[in-house]
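Could you please consider the sequence and fold appended to this message?
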Amino acid sequence: QVQLVESGGGLVQAGDSLRLSCAASGRTFTIYAMGWFRQAPGKEREFVAAIGYSGGVTAYADSVKGRFTISRDNAKNTVNLQMNSLKPEDTAVYYCNVHLLNSQDYWGQGTQVTVSS
């Protein structure tokens, strides 16, 4: 199993920045990809960004391209999401996700990001 703990959420104003972090523990050697999803009130959980094992491959939702940057540190088993130029529509609970080599997925408990206009 893999355990995930997120941090870094909060309340900010539009245009501000936030950095989310997620620390993985447990069977971290089985992690392949790491990523972030978010869920706004009344909406389904949606993909935000993901990064492959080496960090050389990344993917972003169109809504965050150019504003968010995902990175990972395999030595520390962490994945980060730098969020710049935040908009009110970015308000959501953000969840860390890891995808294992055996195709299992694990999720963090979520961290709230609120962007006021």
Notes: The chain has a mean pLDDT of 95. The chain is about 0% helix and 55% strand. The first strand starts at residue 2 and ends at 7. The two ends are 40 Å apart (CA to CA).
